[in-house]
Amino acid sequence: MLPRSSGILLHPTSLPGRFGIGDLGRDAYRFADFLHECGQSLWQVLPLGPTGYGNSPYMCFSAFGGNPSLISLEQLANEGLLDARDIADPPPFPAQRVDYGAVHAYRQPLLQKAFRRFSTASANGFPEDFYRFCEQHAFWLDDFALFMALKEAHQGRAWTQWEPDAAHCQSDALLRSRNELAEAIQYRKFLQYSFFRQWTALQQYCHSRGIRLIGDLPIYVAYDSAEVWANRGLFQLDEHARPVAVAGVPPDYFSASGQRWGNPLYRWDAMAADGYRWWIDRFRVNFSLVDILRLDHFRGFEAFWEVPATESTSARGAWIKGPGADFFHKVQEVLSHHDIAFNVIAEDLGVITPEVDDLRDSLGFPGMRILQMAFGQDPRAQEYRPHNHIRHCVVYTATHDHNTTRGWFTVEPGTQTTQTAQEVAVERRRALAYLGTSGEAIHWDMIRLALGSVAETAIVPLQDVLGLASDARMNLPGTSSGNWEWRFSWDMLDRPARDRLTQLTRVFERDPRVTGLYAD
Known about the structure:
It is built from 19 helices and twelve strands. Helix 4 (128-136) packs across helix 5 (138-153), helix 5 crosses helix 8 and helix 11 (277-289) crosses helix 12 (324-337). Strands 9-6-3-2-1-12-11-10 form an eight-stranded parallel beta sheet. Strands 5-4-7-8 form a four-stranded antiparallel beta sheet, with no helix packed on it. It is an alpha/beta fold. The longest helix is centred in the middle third of the chain and has 27 residues, at 182-208. It has helices at residues 26-37, 73-78, 100-120, 128-136, 138-153, 164-167, 171-180, 182-208, 226-230, 268-273, 277-289, 324-337, 354-363, 381-384, 405-410, 421-435, 442-452, 462-466, 495-507; strands at 5-9, 42-44, 212-217, 245-249, 259-264, 292-295, 303-308, 318-321, 344-346, 367-370, 393-396, 457-461. The radius of gyration is 23 Å and the shape is globular.
């Protein structure tokens, strides 16, 4: 981790731009410049994978690949793979929301055109670096490209609805599909090649500006993913490849009734038998894209909530022991031979036991302290209050699963909260007593609290810097629509907000370019 630093949480889809969704083009570089200008040295993003149903970055078609929706069309045009007129007149997309259906309909023909031009640009075949990329990533890319080509050939249906030979990976059927779908497979590889090239260029630019990237690694993968389709022996599936048990959590801060996520659970015994190779590969690819990884649902590595697949809710689940420290020791040992630093943040929210704390601490991972959870009924509220913070942790005003800070402070009971009116009132009184303010600028009060914490690292969602209300929330757990859509526009990020963020960052000595107490 970095010595005393701070940063901003913003997923690239939330960036501005003409094409309906944030991407890896000019606005991503402009955002890196903003971070540098304001003394921020960290940019945290959500999982970068190709999203599936519900557009959730935590439910992707691949645990390794990148999201083609993030590919910059302008950069493809700059490379000559599109004409300027192809992207000169995009539809009138909403400026502050992602309309995923409209975005997909607009982008797909353009990406396919770019691929056709890429394919015919050289009489001798694809560029050499494309072949090198495909060879380097073949251990996941071959299965993923075939999986997506088959999915497209089946009108986007889940692999369980394909004909049995393809669904169950029969070798003859797969060989036939590789031949029949050769062009579609190459197209999917081209999209990944383009994503990785553009992301790597952005990563290098961030590093040149003194910014490190924090990624996010979901503990589970989607059932309808290349990983489950091609590696079903690693998952708890029956003879018909249906989940025996699925993931979820019991009731906690985020949901009074618990959450049934539906992801298939791992067969940790099978993974241990080959030295956790699949996980090692996954970490290796993800650490090539980011400098630090937030391990989503870290507590699941100590013990996970197992819900019988026949249950419609998570209420009748049970805690089952996870792989524990042995898993991390083996993974770290292998990665160290590849000179990969295992820099992680343990997402230790939810139902946390002393065993989870002990595992995190024994491994030396920093945990998370959420300021919005410091004044309510959460069992860990006391340790979330800044006077109880430790240095080796990461403090957040909120995460992508929380309301914006302004929304949190003003939300009415029963809307985007499971709290009663009395609980909301008590939480607000406690917060104001702690802050010693009127709460008129609650977002800046909480940002000051985060940056002033003794915690080595502080992260603030951009929505809080902008002082936005609940309609800018990124995700509401337990709901299936209206999430992951928020975008900002540059006019929101005015000079007063930039100056205030810069000043607070320097006052609390989190700008690596400024030494000593900032008093100018």
